[in-house]
């Protein structure tokens, strides 16, 4: 039998001098090349520069989303671009995973970061995809994914400076049309983005914000934090957000002034000064509330959950939000919530919060008073509803949407 096979091979080789041996050689050479060259892992770069800045929603979004994403996609290398990579790993050990590469991207003004810095990192770090927030690099050297959290500068331009509105409209329109992948954080923002820039809603994937329940949860943990700030646990009102006109702190201060003075708990405003913040201080002075209303602008991230957890009531009368993460964090912390009827806030709060029109100081004051006077059974019900509503949003689901989009694009390319 062996001789017959040998004769047949010899006959084929004689008929074709380059025959099967040549084909086998080629296959061997290809196999050798493949075994020598390791398969290149996809590299996704993430503009993480907001981690270096002030506490804000887009910062929490990146941290929560990518904590899950790096676990869901161990086959993808994530290159985190920020000015202080050592701090990221020290404060958030999840980013010490073997598929995460924190890379220093020196802090530069936005124009330089978008004009040259991000493009340079795309080239230098051999990125197969770059994920940015709101705006794309001006001269991208590769495919980009972009998360546009909101287009409030289109729908509510009165709450922003004219220069910011002009630049944001130009940059976001370009990002919506040029991005290889487009994400946003709520159904409200998805439809607002589609309407503003003529993008089909189906092209915009929703990666909802969520809450880190290891930090934001009910209980007595951290009770010493409000005490350290001179507050009685369970004995103060709380709001959270940058001091800017859109957050509607003026209405909150005026509504607070209408509460009966007897037994009125102090109001704590947690937030860093931003555009137009002076008006809030002036209103507090005008209404002689300096002793009852306190602005805490230097709260550490570690103390924030405890200050929320031990509030009697959380009030968030914002005019407009792309999502409204503080509402979710307060509900997850076991605190009843009063918030606005506008934009994305009903989507986030569901039926777990009391909703009030943000332009009605009297209605806001009445809602606060009713929540403060409510009995314990009603309060327990509100807390339970809030916790249940907060559980509907989770980072793992959002990270799954993100990674599915990345994989689809990387396969196509």
Q: What class would the helix/strand composition place it in?
A: alpha/beta
CATH H level, superfamily name of the largest domain: Glycogen Phosphorylase B
Order of helices and strands: HHEHEHEHEEHHEHEHEHEHEHEHEHEHHH
Overall number of structural domains: 2
Number of helices: 17
CATH class of the largest domain: Alpha Beta
Helix content: 40-55%
> Over the alpha carbons, how many angstroms does the gyration radius reach?
27 Å
Characterize the biggest β-sheet.
7 strands, parallel
Relative strand content: 5-15%
- The number of E-state strands comes to 13
Short description:
The protein folds into two domains: 43-210 and 395-412, Glycogen Phosphorylase B (Rossmann fold, 3-Layer(aba) Sandwich), CATH 3.40.50; 224-391, Rossmann fold.
Task: Name some characteristics of this structure.
2 domains, 46% helix, disordered N terminus, globular, six-stranded parallel β-sheet, Rossmann fold, 413 residues, alpha/beta, seven-stranded parallel β-sheet
Structural overview:
This protein has 413 residues and is α/β, with parallel strands linked by helices. The chain has two domains: 43-210 and 395-412, Rossmann fold (3-Layer(aba) Sandwich), CATH 3.40.50; 224-391, Glycogen Phosphorylase B (Rossmann fold, 3-Layer(aba) Sandwich), CATH 3.40.50.2000. Helices cover 46% and strands 13% of the residues. The protein is built from 17 helices and 13 strands. The strands form two sheets. It has a seven-stranded parallel beta sheet with strand order 3-2-1-4-5-6-7, sandwiched between helices. A six-stranded parallel beta sheet has the order 10-9-8-11-12-13, with helices on both faces. Helix 3 packs across helix 17, helix 10 packs parallel to helix 11 and helix 10 (249-257) crosses helix 15. The longest helix has 18 residues, at 19-36. It is globular and about 70 Å long. The two termini are 50 Å apart.
């Amino acid at each position: 039998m062996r001789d017959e096979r040998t004769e047949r091979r010899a006959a084929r080789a004689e008929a074709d001098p380059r025959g099967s041996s040549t084909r086998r050689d080629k296959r061997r050479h290809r196999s050798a090349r493949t075994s020598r060259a390791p398969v290149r892992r996809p590299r996704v770069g993430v503009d993480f520069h907001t981690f270096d800045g002030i506490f804000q929603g887009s910062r929490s979004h990146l941290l929560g989303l990518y904590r899950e994403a790096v676990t869901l996609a161990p086959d993808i290398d994530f290159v985190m671009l920020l000015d202080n990579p050592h701090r990221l790993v020290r404060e958030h050990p999840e980013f010490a995973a073997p598929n995460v590469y924190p890379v220093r991207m020196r802090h530069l003004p936005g124009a330089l970061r978008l004009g040259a810095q991000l493009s340079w990192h795309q080239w230098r770090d051999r990125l197969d995809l770059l994920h940015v927030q709101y705006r794309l690099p001006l001269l991208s050297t590769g495919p980009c994914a972009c998360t546009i959290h909101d287009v409030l500068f289109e729908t509510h331009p009165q709450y922003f400076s004219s220069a910011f509105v002009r630049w944001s409209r130009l940059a976001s329109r370009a990002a919506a049309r040029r991005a290889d992948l487009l994400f946003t954080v709520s159904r409200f923002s998805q439809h607002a983005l589609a309407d503003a820039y003529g993008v089909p809603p189906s092209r915009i994937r929703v990666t909802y914000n969520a809450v880190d329940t290891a930090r934001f949860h009910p209980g007595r943990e951290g009770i010493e934090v409000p005490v350290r700030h001179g507050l009685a646990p369970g004995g103060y009102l709380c709001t959270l957000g940058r001091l800017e006109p859109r957050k509607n702190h003026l209405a909150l201060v005026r509504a607070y002034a209408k509460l009966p003075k007897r037994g009125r708990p102090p109001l704590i405003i947690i937030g860093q000064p931003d555009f137009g913040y002076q008006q809030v201080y002036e209103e507090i002075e005008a209404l002689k509330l300096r002793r009852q209303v306190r602005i805490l602008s230097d709260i550490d991230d570690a103390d924030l959950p405890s200050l929320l957890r031990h509030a009697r009531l959380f009030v968030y009368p914002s005019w407009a939000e792309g999502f409204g993460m503080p509402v979710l964090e307060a509900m997850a912390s076991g605190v009843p919530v009063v918030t606005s009827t506008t934009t994305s806030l009903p989507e986030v709060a569901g039926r777990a919060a009391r909703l009030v029109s943000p332009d009605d100081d009297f209605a806001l004051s009445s809602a606060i008073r009713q929540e403060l006077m409510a009995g314990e059974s009603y309060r327990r019900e509100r807390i339970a509803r809030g916790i249940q509503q907060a559980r509907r949003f989770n980072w793992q689901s959002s990270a799954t949407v993100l990674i599915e989009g990345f994989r689809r694009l990387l396969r196509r390319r």
